[in-house]
Amino acid sequence: MKVVAVYSIKGGVGKTTTAVNLAWEAARDFRVLLWDLDPQGAATYLLQVKPKLKGGVDSLVRGKTATGTAVRSTPYEQLDVLPADDSYRELDLMLDAAKKSTQRIEKVLESVADDYDVVILDCPPGASLVAENAMRAADIVVVPLVPSPLSLRSLDQVKGIVAESSRPAPILGFLSMVDRRKSVHWEAVESLHAERKEVADIVVPSAVVVERMGTERAPVATYAPRAEAALAYEELSKRVLSAVKAKRAKPKR
Ligand SMILES: Nc1ncnc2c1ncn2[C@@H]1O[C@H](COP(=O)(O)OP(=O)(O)OP(=O)(O)O)[C@@H](O)[C@H]1O
Ligand SMILES: [Mg+2]
To answer: Of 1, 18, 228, 249, which has the highest C-beta tally within 10 A?
Structure first.
């Protein structure tokens, strides 16, 4: 089982959009679990799952709820969700109070290691204990970068947090919400990929078709498979899965 964390300290850069589209792409070949770690529950909503976690996240991170029983299926084959609800607002405090407080997410996932080939973590923004947990569990950290002079800074902040982890994962950045009419976006696209080896030459354009995910409650490729954004997420998924060497594990039964 390989764990992909979609993360940035910055809010609103396209983490959830990326997590949902990556999860759908990966589910074409693998058994995928998307874990929504954000109390906003946007990934849960986009995949048409009820924002309800029996017993709350406290019980899950303490090992009192079996992970498998909290998982919900989506309209898509091989794609399940571990939904977020309001209890996630207190997740940081709960982690802080728990033993081995940076390894709780990793621990929760251990029990479903035979059920899924790929786990996607949709992280909330910010440098929290939730983020530290996600970085510790991750085999790769995917970072959406909105082109601006500040995007290098947000990439470096993520690098700093990953470097502090007891198990640092490689980082894969890509350009998100790119508006080609803006010269500052063009410049950032060119310089980021040229200057930073961890930034892939993948560009997800800022597009109405992506915004439509909110009304369709579906990944882009399900209703606009030829859209530039859908193709960019397809390519991103290929790179991520090959970087972590995802493979189909044999089911237990
Ligand atoms: N490529 C894109 N083109 C147009 N709109 C986009 C694109 N990517 C994301 N959006 C929109 O931008 C908003 C923020 O995206 P998203 O929720 O994925 O960001 P986030 O980083 O997960 O935010 P948060 O930090 O709040 O979790 C959403 O309304 C989403 O529909
Ligand atoms: Mg989000």
So the answer is: 18
> Is residue 154 pLDDT above 70, yes or no?
yes
> Mind listing the pLDDT tens digit for each residue in 205-239?
999 999 999 999 999 999 999 999 999 999 999 99
- Ligand with minimal distance to 213 CA: 1
- The CATH number for 176's domain is 3.40.50.300
CA–centroid distance, 36 to ligand 2, in Å, is 9
Q: Is 20 inside any structural domain? A: yes
Does ligand 1 lie within 6 Å of residue 214's CB atom?
Answer: yes
The residues near 246 (Cβ < 8 Å, ≥ 6 apart) are: 2, 26, 30, 117, 118
Q: Where are the alpha helices (DSSP H) in the chain?
A: 15-26, 42-46, 56-61, 67-70, 91-97, 104-110, 129-137, 151-164, 183-195, 208-211, 213-216, 220-223, 228-243
Distance CA 70, CA 60 (A): 8
Q: How many domains does the chain have?
A: 1
Can you tell me which atom of ligand 1 is nearest the CA of 13? 21
Q: Looking only at Cα atoms, what is the longest distance across the chain?
A: 55
Phi/psi of residue 115, each to 5°?
Answer: -95, -20
Range of the domain at 143: 2-243
Span from the CA of 14 to the centroid of ligand 2 (angstroms): 7
Counting beta carbons within 10 angstroms of the beta carbon of residue 32, is it exposed (0 to 12), middle (13 to 18) or buried (19 or more)? Answer: buried
Q: Does residue 163 lie within any of the structural domains?
A: yes
Q: How far is the CA of 195 from the centre of ligand 2 (A)?
A: 27
